[in-house]
Amino acid sequence: VHSCSFYISCSEICLLQLRGGSRVLARPVSVSVFNRPEARSEQQTLLPVGEASLLTRGFQTSAVSRDIDTAAKFIGAGAATVGVAGSGAGIGTVFGSLIIGYARNPSLKQQLFSYAILGFALSEAMGLFCLMVAFLILFAM
């Protein structure tokens, strides 16, 4: 642990403070040491040309909350669209039951068909409500 630590004299801290302002002292010492121009030139001579340009890019530690909100919107909208699959399964069940009921008693064809249309409408309405909630999550929030 001792071999990895850096010792900086008071004159170097004053020089770093004059160069970078008072925010330098709030950062870790290793960041201040490695961001000096002398340290950058030594690191860039050891690396190939493509990797040397990556070292000059600034280091950002704060997460952007907009990306998290966008990801949460997509996850919520995807979870809301699961109900559309349930609607499709419900419609299949309604018409499958219509065929079975018609095969058992053909004389009830008209009454069974009206019940099937009612079941289709209710199942389709649930699917459309789920789709509407998904679009509300994506575009209204």
UniProtKB/TrEMBL annotation:
Residues 75-137 form the V-ATPase proteolipid subunit C-like domain. Coiled coil: none annotated. It is found in: Mitochondrion membrane. It holds the Pfam family ATP-synt_C. The lineage of its organism: Eukaryota, Metazoa, Chordata, Craniata, Vertebrata. GO terms for molecular function: lipid binding; proton transmembrane transporter activity. One of its GO terms (cellular component) is proton-transporting two-sector ATPase complex, proton-transporting domain. Its main location: mitochondrion. HAMAP family: ATP_synth_c_bact. The keyword Mitochondrion applies. GO terms for biological process: proton motive force-driven ATP synthesis. The gene is ATP5MC1. Belongs to the ATPase C chain family. The chain crosses the membrane at residues 74-100, 112-139. This is ATP synthase lipid-binding protein.
